[in-house]
Every structure is written in structure tokens, then in C-alpha cells.
Design brief:
- By secondary structure, this protein is α+β, with helices and mostly antiparallel strands.
- The chain has six helices and seven strands.
- Strands 1-2-3-4-5-7-6 form a seven-stranded mixed β-sheet, sandwiched between helices.
- Strand 6 and strand 7 form a beta hairpin.
- The longest helix has 16 residues.
- It is globular, with a radius of gyration of 16 Å.
Length: 194
């Protein structure tokens, strides 16, 4: 499977908004994607700032399978960014986002020269957890009422990956590391508040 990362532009407005419309049920309380032309234009403008980077994950047949953003990029001694991402129906669960995320992580640690990426995931979002875990992110903690999504402050798990831990192989990190992180994540999910 092969996907291409494409920087969002005005030319993608109609297919992007159609993908958002058909994915409302999938996104539910997890994410608030730009839902009209004005919101999409604001999103494209934001990506022109140095502290943001975003990509459409595009399949071989040209369909937009999802979106992956690196937000709030901070340079200097922090050298970090926060991931945001979502898949579109009917492309979810088919590996497109995994491949796209591997490419974004590789770009973040090579071209962008970041040291750390963080993904904040609502505890019940198993698909999102599997996505980052499969690429090598580790669970670092739990933040109550961390982000306001769909009008409510929601708790999030903090997952992170550093440049030293990134192994840019076709399948991500080695299986032993994933198994170890999976065991920690299952234990953490049973009792998320330390």
C-alpha cells in the first residue's frame, strides 16, 4: 500500500468538505474538522505559519483518506510539536493512516528537525491509540480536561515519540517494543489516574 502526503490547498476544498460530511459519525466527539469553505480556508492559511505543518493522506487513486497535522511547533530547546489527525470514511482501518503517519513522523524528525512529537488521545479512542502505538509512540501520562472538543473539556492520554526512538523502517519500530508498550497501555487504561 502506498499513500502520498499532499499539503492542503484551496483546490482540495470540495473533496475535503465532502469527506468531512460523510465522516461526521466516525469523527463524533473525537475531532472537529473544518466543516465549511470558510473553516477550510482558515485551516489552509494556518498551515502557512511556521508553527504548523499539515498533510492530506492521499491514496493511489487520488482519494483523501485522512489528515495529519503537526500543531504548535516550538523550536529552541523544546523542539517539539503536537500531532492531530483523523481518517475519512470509507478509508478508515485500511492502513492508509498508518502509512501516512510513518511518513509524517519521518519528515518531522528529518526535514523539520524536531526532537519530539506528542499525540493527545481521548481514553476511549482505541483506533487512535492503535495508530500511534503501531508507529512506536509510548504512553506518558493522563491529562484531565486537557482539550475542549465539541464544546466540552475532555480528558486525554499523552503519547510521545522522540527522534532517538524513531526507527524509520517500513513497518515502524520492532515488535518487541510494541508489545511492551501495549502491556503498559492496557495496564494504564484500567487505572488511568496515577
Amino acid at each position: 500500500m502506498s499513500v502520498e502526503l499532499v499539503v492542503p490547498a484551496a483546490a482540495h476544498t470540495k473533496p475535503f468538505l465532502a469527506a468531512v460530511a460523510r465522516s461526521r459519525r466516525l469523527h463524533g466527539r473525537w475531532v472537529k474538522a473544518p466543516a465549511n469553505a470558510m473553516e477550510y480556508a482558515a485551516y489552509v492559511r494556518r498551515l502557512r505559519q511556521d508553527s504548523y505543518c499539515g498533510y492530506l493522506v492521499v491514496t493511489a487513486d487520488g482519494a483523501i483518506a485522512g489528515v495529519i497535522n503537526i500543531n504548535e511547533i516550538v523550536r529552541g530547546s523544546f523542539c517539539s510539536g503536537y500531532l492531530g489527525y483523523y481518517a475519512f470514511v470509507p478509508h478508515q482501518g485500511k492502513g492508509y493512516m498508518s502509512e501516512g503517519l510513518r511518513q509524517v513522523v519521518d519528515r518531522a524528525f528529518s526535514r523539520l528537525a524536531l526532537h519530539r512529537l506528542e499525540a493527545n488521545i481521548q481514553p476511549g479512542n482505541r483506533a487512535s491509540r492503535r495508530l500511534v502505538e503501531g508507529v512506536g509512540f509510548r504512553l506518558e501520562g493522563y491529562s484531565e480536561r486537557y482539550l475542549k472538543i465539541a464544546g466540552r473539556w475532555r480528558d486525554h492520554e499523552r503519547w510521545a515519540l522522540t527522534a532517538e526512538d524513531w526507527a524509520p523502517t517500513p513497518r515502524g519500530r520492532n515488535g518487541a517494543g510494541r508489545r511492551e508498550r501495549s502491556a503498559r497501555a492496557r495496564n494504564f487504561s484500567r487505572n488511568p489516574r496515577p
